[in-house]
């Protein structure tokens, strides 16, 4: 027998997810239409989320995710890191490149786990917490590729975030509520056809661990 669930909590979480998926904000009417519930119900749900800092209104009255989600997201990053490192470490050692797991945070790409190879003389220094636009660099572009769900399996870039750096990244797919990518970055040229499938495989392994 299916476990009993709370309809109110379910609706509140659906509203919160809808806000998270609307970077430019969304109106009460749009929330009501999207979720198929009345405006009065939406007002109550939003008021509750606002009390906990999980929702906010801008000057035009559009709804956005509130800053109260930041502590929740911060608590998730160590979990993601712990699950990703056993995959990123052998990826870095095998290819001799710095490997990383990157997630979407506030419309930017955020590195939450990084492993540098132990045996190379030179490698790219890449720190946990580094941010950049999604439209720049292999990691961000791979996340955008994951949103499209069609086309190539990985993305390759050169010199977009750091002069002389080469990157290859693949989206992490099939993990509900997570937009992320796994990538490698090197000071030397990379053959995407050679390393791309390995990066895609690593992304799939991390998706399995997170799923």
Task: Give a description of the structure.
- The chain is of the alpha+beta class and 211 residues long.
- The protein has 2 domains: 7-67, Arc Repressor Mutant, subunit A, CATH 1.10.10; 70-210, GAF domain (Beta-Lactamase).
- Helices cover 44% and strands 20% of the residues.
- The strands form 2 sheets. The protein has a 6-stranded antiparallel sheet with strand order 5-4-3-8-7-6. Strands 1-2 form a two-stranded antiparallel sheet.
- A hairpin with a 7-residue loop joins β7 and β8.
- The longest helix has 27 residues, at 69-95.
- The mean pLDDT is 91.
- Note the main sheet: 6 strands, antiparallel
Number of helices: 6
Percent of sequence in beta strands: 15-25%
Count of discrete structural domains: 2
For the terminal residues, how far apart are their CA atoms?
23 Å
Strand order of the largest sheet: 5-4-3-8-7-6
Mean pLDDT reading = 91
**Total E-strand runs:** 8
CATH topology description of the largest domain: Beta-Lactamase
